[in-house]
Specification:
Strand content: 15-25%
Protein name: ABC transporter permease
Radius of gyration: 32 Å
Distance between the termini: 62 Å
Number of domains: 2
Shape: elongated
Organism: Bifidobacterium breve
Largest sheet: 7 strands, mixed
Strand order of the largest sheet: 4-5-3-6-2-1-7
Length: 236
């Protein structure tokens, strides 16, 4: 796949598989990506461990699975897992590595690994594409054009995954902003109620205060003291 907007591309085998697992024991979608060029595969997708960022090497005997998939299936390196392919056939796959990925369930293989697991000759059916312009608007525009090509069934954009990650990361900040605003409003309400309560008490004491004198000075001095204490308490 070549074009003025494309930086580089590589043929792959792409298939949506599944597994009944998870806390709800429901059907989970698993994306299989197989390549016949393991050496340059890292130019498109980085396979590394979470701890120490150790590179995960593709082999011809098994697969590298994503971290979330490993957690879902309680799988470790060296284990054999069972997944269901698009035809409904169960396939046994050895876990050769676990790669750091925060969203989705993925399984990566070499063409040799694919043949070993599926017993079929590897044949690519999709492309991984890198655009020269990585801006979201350009990716969406190019995707709309590519989907119109003959033989194109669908397009998966990594910008979608990035948006999901950004949403998850930004969510705590948004919640914190709401909590801060709520705390400030609560402080205002408390100070307002304290002031009204203090004024009401002073009004009830008017006859005594008039006899003793110093009505204005006493009321405002008490109000100022209460407001200052309330403000300090809200800051804490």
């Amino acid at each position: 796949m070549k074009g003025g907007a494309v930086s580089e591309s590589a043929p792959i085998y792409y298939e949506e598989m599944s597994k009944v697992a998870g806390t709800e024991n429901d059907k989970q979608s698993i994306t299989l990506i197989a390549t016949d060029d393991a050496y340059n595969f890292g130019d498109y997708i980085t396979l590394r461990s979470r701890t120490g960022h150790k590179p995960q090497v593709l082999t011809d005997r098994g697969a590298i699975i994503s971290e979330r998939m490993a957690e879902m299936m309680d799988a470790k390196v060296g284990d054999t897992i069972t997944v269901t392919d698009s035809s409904g056939t169960e396939r046994k796959v050895r876990v050769d590595g676990i790669t750091e990925m925060h969203i989705g369930h993925f399984m990566f293989m070499t063409s040799g690994g694919y043949k070993h697991v599926f017993g079929e000759r590897y044949q690519s059916n999709a492309y991984m594409v890198r655009l020269k312009n990585h801006e979201t608007s350009n990716v969406e525009s190019r995707s709309a054009k590519l989907i119109k090509l003959d033989g194109a069934k669908g397009i998966v954009q990594n910008t979608t995954s990035k948006k999901q990650v950004a949403t998850i990361v930004d969510l705590p900040d948004q919640i914190m902003e709401v909590l801060i605003l709520a705390a400030e409003l609560l402080a205002v309400v408390i100070l307002y109620n304290l002031t009204n309560l203090n004024v009401s008490e002073r009004i009830r004491e008017l006859p005594t205060i008039k006899v003793l004198g110093g009505l204005g000075v006493l009321v405002y001095r008490r109000l100022k003291t209460v407001d200052m204490l309330g403000a300090l308490k809200s800051v804490e």
